[in-house]
Design brief:
Elements (H helix, E strand, L loop, with lengths): L7 E2 L1 H10 L4 H8 L3 H8 L7 H11 L7 E3 L2 H12 L1
Antiparallel strand pairs: 1-2
Helix pairs in contact: 2-3
Keywords: DNA-binding
Protein name: Helix-turn-helix domain-containing protein
Organism: Marinactinospora rubrisoli
């Protein structure tokens, strides 16, 4: 599992995906088990989530995590490259 330092979320993109569903921060927070304030800090670039939370956000929003992760953890990029090379 990557550390939080490895994950950079595009907060504006995450906010766009949430608003596209017409969800409030409170509603998304209920879906992923986090407070609206915590999610707001992620959307505003003041906080980076754990990979576990990224996965829960992607599942709740029904999108791949790559839709809002600005920089994927190195080990995931390497794994993707190996998979594509086969």
């Amino acid at each position: 599992m990557p550390s939080t330092d490895d994950i950079r979320v595009d907060g504006a993109r995450l906010a766009h995906l949430r608003k596209r569903r017409r969800w409030s921060l409170a509603h998304l927070g209920q879906q992923v088990g986090r407070s609206p304030g915590y999610l707001s800090r992620i959307e505003n670039g003041k906080r980076d989530p754990s990979w576990e939370l990224v996965e829960r956000l992607a599942e709740a929003l029904e999108v791949p995590a790559t839709d809002f992760v600005a920089a994927a953890p190195t080990y995931l990029m390497e794994e993707t490259c190996r998979t594509r090379a086969i």
